[in-house]
From TrEMBL:
Entries under InterPro entries matching the protein: MetI-like (IPR000515), MetI-like_sf (IPR035906)
One GO process term, biological-process aspect: transmembrane transport
UniProt similarity note: Belongs to the binding-protein-dependent transport system permease family.
Transmembrane segments: 26-46, 93-114, 126-148, 160-181, 202-221, 261-284
Record protein name field: Carbohydrate ABC transporter permease
PROSITE patterns recorded: ABC_TM1
Amino acid sequence: MTTTAAPAGRRRLMPRWRDYGRPRDLIVRYLLLFLVLGLTVGPLLWQLLASLKSTGEDVFGAGATLLPHDPTLRAYRTVFDQVPVATYIRNSVIVVVLSVTSQLVFATTAGYMLSKPGWKGRRAVWVVLVASMMFPFESIMVSLFLSIRDLGLVDSLAGVWLPGFVGAINVLLMRGAFLAVPREIEDSAMLDGANEWQRFRYLYLPSAWGAIMVVVINTFISAWDDFLWPLIVLRSEGSMTLTLGLSRLQSSSFGYDQRMVMAGSVISVIPVLVLFVITQRWFYKGVSSGAVKL
């Protein structure tokens, strides 16, 4: 009985342990991976489990356990009964939609213009954008509030949205993505009679789809999770965003139930997780394709 050897190409496709490095290096890699996973996912998992605990179970202290003995959704029902979560979600959605729309419009157009050579002042604008990223938000917070007050936008969702209608990092990200488009392709489109808008719409935007998704995700997360600026601008309960409104659960008027605080944190983070899970492949693609280039 004779046997035939597998083709050489098939043998090369079969993974071997030495292709992944030495066993000791492989163990170290997995240990580091689980360590990072525990540091990132661990707090969220702990909040979820703590929010499911019944009233008689300890959340903190020596008698506290990780897993709830009698899981219940009482904390979530109490949150929805005591605070207007639907109003908070509506306000957050309005701010997110305004922020994402303005970021997409202005970041893509500004990034496109910065990627085009030949116009005077292009380098100076690029330097100003990079320099603006060096100043923390806290250093301009007072002047921003005075400007919003003079515009009469205090205690309004427009006042929350306006200071962040476009971000320098998103402009530079889109600029890097547009610079990756080969010049020869644009020259071919120009020879075919495509004007500036047509080249931007049908050539550059499809090529920068990954970077656009990065802008969408980053803007969504920053607008949805923002707490400091809404805390300064907003006053009435009907105009509060979700993050700001749920922070009221820590006040004494709600008895400071730790399970309610954990439930509110889980409620606020669920939309971010859902968005990231849906768009993660475009996010990682856009991070690599939209690197900032000099």
